[in-house]
Automatic annotation (TrEMBL):
Entry keywords, A to Z: Signal
Spans annotated as Disordered: 26-47
CDD domains: PBP2_peptides_like
Ranges for domain Ionotropic glutamate receptor C-terminal: 62-290
Cellular component aspect of the GO annotation: membrane
Domain Solute-binding protein family 3/N-terminal, first and last residues per copy: 62-291
UniProt key word Acyltransferase: no
Record keyword Transmembrane helix present: no
Protein's name in the database: Unannotated protein
Lineage: unclassified sequences, metagenomes, ecological metagenomes
Signal sequence interval, chain numbering: none
Amino acid sequence: MRRTLASTAVLALGTLSALTACAPVDEEPTASDPGSSPSATEEAGVDPAECVTDDMLLEPGVLTVGTDSPAYEPWFVDNDPTNGEGYESAVAYEVAERLGFSEDQVTWTKVPFNTSYAPGAKEFDFDINQISITPERAEVVDFSAGYYQAAQAVIALEGTAGAEATSLADLADLRLGAQTGTTSLTAIREIIQPAEDPSVFEDTNAAKQALDNDQVDAILADLPTAFYISAVEIPGSVIVGQFQPETGEQEEFGMLFEKGSPLVACVDAALAAMTEDGTLEAIETEWLSDVVDVPELQ
């Protein structure tokens, strides 16, 4: 796996600790035990390096990994998942290595976020794209164990009504927006419940442009993405605060698989080993930022 330094802007944000995320959930199908695949309890005793067989793969001898395009920082760097830079790219290559794949045996394919969790056959072995594990999605796809714990963050321009908010109730009277299909959009509708219907954007770039153009007072994204937006992409923007979705239980990102994929057990075994030996935490520290000073919105 390649371990290069993050961009200067991301490094300036500091080292990471416990952040939270923003993956879509609006139009998905539903399930009972979100994070568990049939193999989720079977990773103990599984050697990831001996686990994968060709019949588990889309293409024998090749690990096909999906993600969206553009692929945003700090999850990927320079919109290039193949360079091993950024949190999710680094995690994907580390998992691949533990499964016995060299870098040149990993291939990437474009998968629009909103189609990744649709039912049916997949053109990837797993997809890694800040996809939150939800019961709805788990009805029709399988997930790995969580590789990142996530929270929602609110971004606004300095000196605007959005930047003045100090609670979720303060947000309810504002013009809010988020990417379609994300847990951020669901959080707006179900938790904040604004007086005005939220603006729905095709991708994060469109949401950022709307904020810059004063079409919305604030946008929502996962916390690491919010840090990058505020520090690098939108001068004069601030992170208003963060909050946990739904009941306050920790939201998690998981790698997504075709329903019934036997590869889930192998990936879970790799993730378990990465957690146990500290590799996953080290990747998080390298590529994500410290959120200690971000206030909690209640």
